[in-house]
Amino acid sequence: MSYCAAIEGMQPESRRELHKRYHDNHYGFPIHDDNELFGRLVMEINQAGLSWETILKKEEGFRKAYDDFDIQKVASYAESDRERLLNDPAIIRNKLKVNAAIENAKTIVELQKEFGSFEKWLEHHHPKTLPEWMKLFKKTFKFTGGEIVNEFLMSIGYLKGSHAENCPVYDEVLKHDPMWNKI
């Protein structure tokens, strides 16, 4: 069952609205801001082993804990910041995931120096198949397994599949010219 169809049957209404807000306004839409791209990567990494609903409920906590996903700030985090994050109940307190966020921010800073932006690095490697993307992410970033890479790239419009073609949001996503439509 697609995410689009699953949302309609979710109960209670507050749960359905949480998912619907993400589905209708964010999922699959291209992101052109490096900090937001980084934020989506952090959220996808943190979802590993947990439900997406848990991550959606903690999104504001993630934003606050990680300085609104400011790549430069996160890349400069010290050991005291790692400890702060590991003690913050508003986020997922997993050492591997916290370390991945900080190390991936440092990597993105280097990619920005070389390519001009994280988005331009992604564009430079487009198009790729999912296995090719997985290999690239595994070589470049920390804690980026296949499902994380797939969901990250679908959620930002690089891979097709975020919405069923009969979903009204599918046509909205197309209006924003997702990268998967440029193949």
From TrEMBL:
InterPro entries: Adenine_glyco, DNA-3mA_glycosylase, DNA_glycosylase. GO terms for biological process: base-excision repair. Keywords: Metal-binding, Zinc. Pfam families: Adenine_glyco. The keyword Ribosomal protein does not apply. It comes from the Bacteria. GO terms for molecular function: DNA-3-methyladenine glycosylase activity; metal ion binding. SUPFAM superfamilies: DNA-glycosylase (SSF48150). Zn(2+) binds at H23, H163, C167. This is DNA-3-methyladenine glycosylase. It comes from Chryseobacterium mucoviscidosis.
